[in-house]
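Appendix B, Record 12. Input sequence as logged:
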Amino acid sequence: MARILVIEDDSSLRQVLEMFLRKTGHEVVSASSAEEGLRFVGDNEFDLVLTDLKLGRQSGLDVLSRVKASAPECEVIVMTAYSTVETAIEAMRRGAFDYVGKPFKLDEISITIEKALERRALSLENIRLRRELSGRYRFDQIVGKTARMRQVFDTVARVAATRTSVLITGESGTGKELVARAIHFNSPRKDGPFVVVNCGAIPDTLMESEMFGHVRGAFTGAHTTRHGLLESAQGGTVFLDEIGEVSLPMQVKLLRFLQEHTIRLVGGTQEVKVDVRVVAATNKDLHQEVKAGRFREDLFYRLNVIRIHLPPLRERAEDIPYLAQHFVEKFCREIGREPLVIAPDVMERLKALRYPGNVRELENILEHAVTFGRGRTIEMDALPEHVRQTRLDTLSPLEDVTQVPEEGLDLEARLEDIERRILLNALRRAGGVRKDAATLLGITFRSMRYKLAKYGLGPPLEEE
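Logged structural output:
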């Protein structure tokens, strides 16, 4: 059911439209003049306005302009017995959905009304989705408290307002696409498209056509002209995921696009201007790829104007409780469930895992836990079997934790992670007896209590 305003000075037609629209299930308000109709518009919200063109001192075009100024999503259909091409063009220019000549059949105008209401519904859905996306990709949705993650947030906030190319690096599962979307949805381009290109999933033989499009007859099977992914991102952002997988010949074409901001469809002769921002991502070390001759140095520097590196989850273990709670709340909200509490022993296990799949792995674990959890608390039996059975009594090899990656690391976070896991191992070796664990580590019981409280492995000091 829609709420429709009918503005018509012919009382008999107005009554016919009222009766017909109510019979088809709509709520109808009617007015006999432009002034009366505009008062209704000022006090109410309508899905559709049906207005006559000739209404005395003010015309239907005046009504149209006022409605569109105050409620842009409201559709307007102009009715008139004095149809001219010029007036029809002016009505459409001012935002009318359609221009209907009198006399008309009720069945015919009914079809026009339903199409107008369908467009309004689609428009409102698009607005809702954009608001949802903007909320989903606010900076505070990228969860992290470590110094390195705060640096990521700061960089994203700084570069979002620019049109500078950005290169996002990090292992698979660290959230590179999430950061790319945050850049887009917090930029002046947020109302434009965000187009994802998975460079590793497109075969070399199809890459050029997929990226740049092709004209009809460009190759066997090209029966129609087809626009490419870059052109479809016009006015927005294109996210080139796994850019390190692109072949050298295609890298040349991408370089030209970045330099000239133009493309040429496969088989075409015309240069097409394309206004898009490029955000690229890779889990490869592009410096090494350049040295090995697998990636063009000039393209690397074109993409690497601003670089954002996402650390693996094992290097920011103190973020795990925040991420875990974020994912639990997210999945509970999606299935309409009251927020669950993560049991302390479950959180301890989550903190101790190594996460080769990074944040994505933690997310998958907690989706499973919310799905299979019973009661108000996520207990150990709700975790996936492989997580429950993972042994946590061994530290990573010393050479692993002492390696300094090319992009650097958060030293304090790394040392805290090592200390926390040593404490866990000492507790297990001592059968959970803290005094014995303190003896194993050569520290006082007071120091042991402080460290356990610091890492959330025991009660706060004031509770003891």
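The first strand starts at residue 3 and ends at 7.
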